[in-house]
Specification:
- The chain is of the alpha+beta class and 85 residues long.
- Helix content is 15%, strand content 44%.
- It has a domain of 57 residues.
- Strands 1-2-3-4-5 form a five-stranded antiparallel β-sheet, with helices on one face.
Length: 85
């Protein structure tokens, strides 16, 4: 008697992604907010928002300019969106 492998209709593997960790926000100086993300290796720089001439300028963790915003919260949202993407 021999055993035959019967092919399955779907051999896809399901990948379960861990929920993204929330960012921790620090303010090391007036008009500067820095986003940090906790990783297994330690804290990882995720970006910053800086108040310059009345606008909140956001940069991601690679230094890419994400835009100038009317509020700190809008700049923060831009960084949080960039870290999910």
């Amino acid at each position: 008697m021999s055993l035959l492998e019967i092919p399955r209709e779907s051999m896809t593997q399901h990948v379960v992604e861990a929920a993204p960790r929330r960012l921790r926000w620090l303010s090391p100086a007036s008009g500067l907010w820095v986003a940090m993300r906790e990783t297994q290796a330690g804290d990882d720089f995720a970006g910053f928002v800086e108040l310059v001439q009345g606008e909140f300028r956001a940069h991601d963790g690679q230094g890419t300019f994400l835009g100038a915003f009317a509020s700190r919260e809008a700049g923060r949202d831009a960084i949080e969106g960039a870290t999910r993407g």
